[in-house]
Amino acid sequence: MVRVWLQPDGPGLSSGVNPLIRKVILLSCLAWGAGVPCWADADEAKAREILNRLTAFYRGLEAFEVESVMTTSMKNPQLVEPLTQELRQTYKVKRPGQFVLESRGDGMLFSAPNAYLDDWQGVLLLEGQGRIEASGVATPAAFLRNPAFGFNPNAGGNIVFDQNIGLSFLNKLLFADVGQGWERDLKSVTLVGESVINDVKVDQLALTTETHQFGEAATMVLNIWVQQGKEPFLLRLKPDLSNLFSQGDGAPEMEVGMLGEWHSWNTKPSFKEDTFKAPKADDEMPVFPSFEAMMQAQTAAQNPALALTSTEAKAFTLKDLDGEEFQLSKHRGKEVVVLAFWGSWLSPEAEVLTALASIEKQLKDAPVEIVAVNVGEEEARVRAYLDEKKLGLRVVIDAEQKVAPLYEVRAVPQTVVIGKDGEIFQVHIGSDEAFEEELLRELRLILEAPAENTP
Question: Does domain 308-447 have CATH number 3.60.21.10?
Fold first, then answer.
């Protein structure tokens, strides 16, 4: 699932300006134009004035309700037909502490959340996934910034709500604690021109911001259409995502298009008493204390091996290629054991034995036993593979595939880290470039932990 975060990084003023001069310039500009940089040209100054007026308008609303449609399309040469999602949402807010967001859509590309906040009780419903409940939530902004409901500062925002760029942008306009002055740090704000939407005159702005995609800086342009007049309603948003989905290296180009539209704005709504109350819990929908707990439960259901963490490792005995028995129980209280279930048919990207051999050399004096458990192959094939790779790891063969089921092995590679106490510390499904580094860090963490009495 592709996620795009509106996370401006660049400073509002050139970092090359003397700090004292920078403060004087900023203060004079703030006094002159409500946050509009005085070095901007006339068009940019007017564009920032419109943006500041838009932000002030929304943060000053005591209550509102609005309907929106976010249309998303995704295509590349590998898709027979483009994937398209139309997500319709009803958004109602009554400050200081009530809001409801109801979504109607299939959630095929991005989440279709239903959120409720009333009387300090927050509820998030994700169809087909679960219900998340948390108390002590004072405001809509506190809801959106609550880790229980998907907020993750390392991701730059809320994992659930910020998938919808239109909703994410609107929330930044509405709530200072969510926006946190991001508009002052935009790379540029341009007045594109005037147009008409449904007989309403609008100003079109282009907002350029810095974001990150797959760990690398990228530029994103948000085109927004703002109603002219005393009520500067946000009517349309269309992000230019071309820079974010450029694959490079000959990979198929991914084309992603988004269009957000708002209509039926009402700033003097009459809400019913139960407008913001969440539906009663459904016995068929699981309830979780947090979004992370829900994700963990889903992951464990999809791969039962991950649920083995903190359980006792199942005992077994297998012979290695030298004819010696490896008996897991004999290592309890003495060594940390790493079991790597593997097969010689694995692609280079999924091959873990080289990484394990490297770790074994780095921890050669540590009480760590690394055992590669081959799943179901003939001994001759295993020996030929090891000779070719020149790997000196200890290898046992689960010829009858009786050990793999004990550790819920559904696919290889799967790596199981077992502490000296006989409990499973971690389970790794698959492999990637960070596998060696992560596993080495885990082993050192276990080895540096205070010693405990082990029966």
Answer: no
Q: Does 308-447 match 19-299 at the fold level?
A: no
184 closest CA partner among 9, 323, 304: 9
Give the model confidence (pLDDT) of 375-427 as tens digits.
989 999 999 989 888 888 999 999 999 999 999 888 889 999 999 999 999 99
- pTM exceeds 0.85 for this model: no
How many CB atoms sit inside 10 A of residue 352's CB? 23
Angle CA(190)–CA(192)–CA(197) in degrees, nearest 5?
A: 130
Say if CB 110 and CB 1 are below 8 A apart. Answer: yes
- In terms of phi and psi (left: phi > 0; alpha: psi -120 to 50; beta: otherwise), the region of 250 is left
Question: How confident is the model over 329-378, as pLDDT tens digits?
Answer: 999 999 999 999 999 887 775 678 999 999 999 999 999 999 999 998 99
For residue 171, how many C-alpha atoms fall within 13 Å in the half-sphere facing its CB? 26
Q: Report the distance separating Cα 438 and Cα 378, nearest Å.
A: 31
Report the distance separating Cα 275 and Cα 94, nearest Å: 10
**Where are the chain's structural domains?**
19-299, 308-447
Residues in the chain, total: 455
Q: Which two tokens stand for residue 379?
A: 């001994």
- The second-level CATH assignment, the architecture, of 19-299 is Clam (2.50)
